Amino acid sequence: MASTLSQWFRSLRVKLLQRYEHQPFVSCLAGLYGCQWKHYKRSQPEGCCCNKLEGASFAVLVAAFCLTLLFLYFWGQAKNDYNDFDWFNFGNLGFWFPWSVVLLAVAVVFFTYVTVLVLLAVCLLSEGQKLYLHWSHKIGILVSLTVSVIAMAVLSNLWSKEWRTLLLSFQVTAPFLHVGGVLLMTSLAWPVALHFFRMKSTVRRGLIMAVYLTVLLSLYLIPLGLYSPCIKEKGTLGPAPALIGHRGAPMLAPENTLMSFEKAVEAGCDSLETDVTISFDGVPFLMHDYTLQRTTNIHEVFPNRTNTPAARFTWNELESLNAGDWFLSHNPFGTAGSLNADDRQRAGNQSVCSLQAFLQLAAQTGKLVIFDLYRPPRDHPFRDTWIQRTLEVIQNESSIHSSQVLWLPSNLRALVQELDPELQQTSGSRLPLEELQRNHIVKLNLDYTSMSAELIREYTAVNITTNLYVISQPWLYSLAWCAGVHSVTTNAPQLLSTISSPLFIMSPDEYKLMWILTDLMSFVLILLIFFFHRWRERELAFCTGSRIKLEGGTYSKFKKGNLP
């Protein structure tokens, strides 16, 4: 029995000390990485993994990987605002194109390309091979790096708020990014340990270990600085935020049309949001933009007035416009194709909606309403009486109750309160509590990037609820839910209404357990890998009594007779 066990351990030791070069696999890796299909030179198993030039190329490759990953993550998390980005470009370029999707595709292509090269390099290093990156890949890496840097610089300049979105996303993704990062560094322990124990230069060995350990320890300790409202004790999660249809349900129908608001009601919205402009003859109507170019066929009906402010048109002129065809032709959310034939026909026949018709729909369905009110331009007949005219429609021309109206305009708020004290005063600014209470504010309407669980609790304590706009992605909705937000304005009520619980929620104890187990298992595996390579390199040196030799250009297998 003892003899059998001894033979088994001896056999295992022989197999562990054998060096294998998986020639077809290595040749394929070298061909893809360095385009050396015919003249690939096999490296010696000792020494540095590459010369200085290739070392610099590998460093640039790693930098490109990090930046393309950041670019992809940055723009991927910005999906909530793709529609705003595309219409921003429409306003500047004058034509519609889904630039957001194109930019995402570019980010995916560059990241995929760089990631493949990194994987090839890691595999070559794991096989004990030296790196020789082909010049075409070096150019490709520089292009990927340059485009990513320029794109992020331009987006940061034009769309800086997306950095705040990125920071918010970490409150949901950070626990999983931590696990993924630790797994990645654990898997890299094999090639790092292999080349660490083969390197003869003490400086290089110290440098590679310093970099590796710095990154590893940073990942281990990242959870110490992590905050997420979704890491909370069980039983403390409040009700789901109510849904406010942003210009209706703009993924299912043309925005700010009766069809859009009806779809929002069908999707389960508790409130409806819109934008109000006063026509030249005093009819309040729904229009978000300053002009009619984007959401009507103004270029066909009034081709010489495409740049004229919407408030300069009379109601009869506005009624002659089509406000639905653009939705089918531009397909702003990529959802128009999902409409059935009846809905497509109905969408294409929508017209500009009046405030009176909008309020009647809200009154009939029992929904709350909130709207931005735009002051007419100079020389407009209702420039100084636009608020009084809007109040007239609410009080005298519709059956809606004033308590159903969340009054958002800040102009002449004291006068509005005096004329109609039942309106629910709503502020679009995060003002001091004393000022909010003095103005009888009952709700705050804030950009979602202002999300703060602490501030929401402070406002709730004095009976001020919070609404965040515009939230259309499930992860953002989940984060708002965990933070205690009371309602959200959304482009996607049909999607968010199906979410029964936050996408990510766990107790502090569960998160600590996940964190500790992940770091502990990683630490143990890395230690085992380093001890294995240290033992193997020492045993190989002892068994051979000299440097490892190559037979026929490939790593030789040590035969049992060579071992003591």
UniProtKB/TrEMBL annotation:
Keyword Transcription regulation: no
GO molecular function: glycerophosphodiester phosphodiesterase activity
Membrane topology: Multi-pass membrane protein
Record-linked Pfam families: GDPD
GO terms under cellular component: membrane
GP-PDE domain: residues covered: 241-500
Entry protein name: GP-PDE domain-containing protein
Alphabetical list of InterPro entries matching this protein: GP_PDE_dom, PLC-like_Pdiesterase_TIM-brl
Parts of the chain that traverse the membrane: 58-76, 96-125, 137-156, 176-197, 209-227, 513-532
UniProt similarity note: Belongs to the glycerophosphoryl diester phosphodiesterase family.
Organism: Astatotilapia calliptera (Eastern happy)
Keywords: Glycoprotein, Hydrolase, Membrane, Transmembrane, Transmembrane helix
Domain of life: Eukaryota
Gene3D superfamilies membership: Phosphatidylinositol (PI) phosphodiesterase
Source lineage: Eukaryota, Metazoa, Chordata, Craniata, Vertebrata
GO biological process per UniProt: lipid metabolic process
Subcellular location as annotated: Membrane
